[in-house]
Design a protein that fits this description.
Length: about 190
């Protein structure tokens, strides 16, 4: 079973609807994870988010960075919900032997993305701004932020392949983290 359901949005939505993001995601995750455990689901894969890491985590982000510093304020409520989901999976695994694994994908993009002017994620937001500027023959495009943060992007098909791989082959041992980051690794 894969738990990919979540209330999501971009920086502006996360910053504007803090209680909604926390409450809705806690409800979704808690109910689905609890019922999967209670009904004997053989394996649950919980999809989290790379926003669970501290704002100033070393790049590329390693799993050990979890809870090592303050979160990014613009999405901390969503991040707290996702941390709670992965910790619930970890606790059920530890206490009850529930076969739950968690993957933390980086910024995703692909078919069916949300290109809303204010509530999209970074890559579709940039595509929308550049498209709108091209349509209007605008001389420039205004983007939020300083331009200094590093971001990783992953196509949804690549995440799908990582999920299938984890469901079929990942057998975490006692020494392994209870979750893994999912990122595109280029080998030259």
């Amino acid at each position: 079973m894969v738990l990919a359901a979540a209330k999501v949005g971009g920086i502006q939505a996360n910053n504007s609807y803090t209680a909604d993001f926390l409450l809705e995601n806690l409800k979704i995750q808690t109910h689905v994870i609890k019922m999967a455990w209670r009904s004997g689901v053989r394996r649950l894969l919980f999809l989290g988010s790379s926003c669970i890491y501290p704002k100033f985590a070393e790049q590329p982000i390693r799993e050990e960075a979890l809870l090592s510093g303050p979160l990014e304020p613009t999405n901390e409520w969503y991040a707290i919900a996702k941390i709670t989901g992965l910790k619930l999976c970890e606790a059920l695994s530890k206490q009850h032997g529930f076969d739950a694994i968690s993957l933390m994908p980086t910024n995703l993009y692909g078919p069916g993305d949300n290109y809303h002017r204010e509530n999209s994620h970074v890559l579709p937001a940039l595509i929308r701004r550049f498209h709108d500027a091209a349509e209007a023959n605008a001389p420039s495009v205004s983007c939020w932020g300083t331009g200094t943060p590093l971001r990783e992007f992953l196509h949804v098909d690549d995440l799908g392949e990582a999920c299938v791989f984890a469901l079929e082959r990942w057998q975490p041992g006692a020494e392994d983290p209870p979750f893994l980051n999912v990122r595109l690794i280029l080998i030259s």
